[in-house]
Design goal:
It contains 17 helices and 17 strands. The chain is an alpha/beta fold. Strands 6-7-8-9-11-13-14-15-16-17 form a ten-stranded parallel beta sheet. It has a five-stranded parallel beta sheet with strand order 1-2-3-4-5. The chain has a two-stranded parallel ribbon with strand order 10-12. Helix 15 links the parallel strand 14 and strand 15. InterPro entries: LRR_dom_sf (IPR032675).
Length: about 500
Amino acid sequence: MSPRYPVPSLYLSSMHVIINNIVTSISLIHIEGNLDDWDTYEAYEEELQSVSNYLSCLPPNISQELLQSILSTDELDAAIRFCALKMLFHDHIRSLIVGPFPPDYYMKILEVVGEQGTDLQILDLRGVWVKGDETQKLHQVLEKLSNLKELYIPHIANDKVLETLGRNHKSLLVLDISGACSITRDGIEMLSCGPSSPIEPSNLQIVNIGTPGEGDVIPPNVALLLKNLPNLISLGGYSFVGKALLYLIAEEDVTPVKETNLQQLHDTDTDSNILDAIIRLCPKLESIYLDRPNEGVIGRLCHIPRLKQVKLNRFECAELDPLLASSGEKLDTLELLVGKGVTDMSSIANHCSQLTKLVCYKMEFLTHYEEVMFPKLTKLEILHSPISTSCVRYLMTCCPQVEELSVGESIDLTDDDIADILGKSALLELRELWIASARNLTRISVEVLMITCPKLKSIGVLSGWGLTPDDVQELFYEIQISNMDLMLWEFFGD
């Protein structure tokens, strides 16, 4: 039987009461004021002071949780969320995720962060898209936040921001400056403290830079980061890391090349020379994403000793076999996108006994020839990839530890098939089951799944199954009266 809803803890219940009181108080002040324009906090400072006094005695961790809950509620008016920020944000809060706001609030938010954020360790400004002259305020704010460990400012970074971060932020470990940013080689050098900079090297470990698939940041500039950031383990979604490594080797006559500490990389149009550079300079690499790799490259990934996670896009499926035969036992994640040819799922199971995640997206055809178990697989996604119904039955039967299973294709499973599958493998760990189209599955299959899978919390997409609207409504009622923690999804994203 699907799990029951637990009794809410006193802590969560109390938090919900306080959040509701805060939002209600701010809203009532708005209504009583009967003013059309209440976007300026100062106009309501006296009325809101009583609410602020009530909250002033809260411990920092409680203030942080209350504030984050309110800021993450998109349904709330921006003015309510901003007032909550003014009242709950103070010196001792360590983490702030601002969320999306209208442009009129950008400068006000930066002022609050600059005044009260001295102890911040994590700042996420996604949703505060300052541009032009407004970025000067961002520079001023960042200069005050010397304790930051993580900073997320995609699409708004520029050379001045990078200079500030390179000068004053030795504790910074994670930096997101991805997207369309005004970044040049000078800015990257000031961030990474290159040879022309008098500043000591940074401790940055993760720098997410550039737009995935775009060449807005050229490999020679990224090579500066690789050269001057000794602790760097990832360049996020940057799509040409291999070419940056190749550039380092090309400059070897001028500057000696050291091995990097990269653990994850993404590269596009990888050829044998680039792969040689990756193998030579990335001995600690654990995760690789290759887009359009040249012929022969995939089979040589076995020369990366610590590789555990492989993601391939636009490749020949026949080239997968040598990799799996030589290194499959080490892999825990395999993501296959837009592969040409037939993929034998049982061959993957045969070679990859440690696999916990398998994703197939827009593959040409998926099948199986043997009944080999996936003993540790917990997540299986098959999306926009033609697959035989017998292969789906095989996968549902031979993945005893699967927690999330998604099939985004039309399949011919019947109620008898579901009963047979659950008779062979009880799917005791299954939490989410999504099948886009299975017209022969009726209400009976849903009820059998509800009864048999003790951890099942989500079933979809019922609009593609053989259920009537009345069936769905009766199932909703049954779930409600039984207090089941189970969600039935009729449509994608409903």
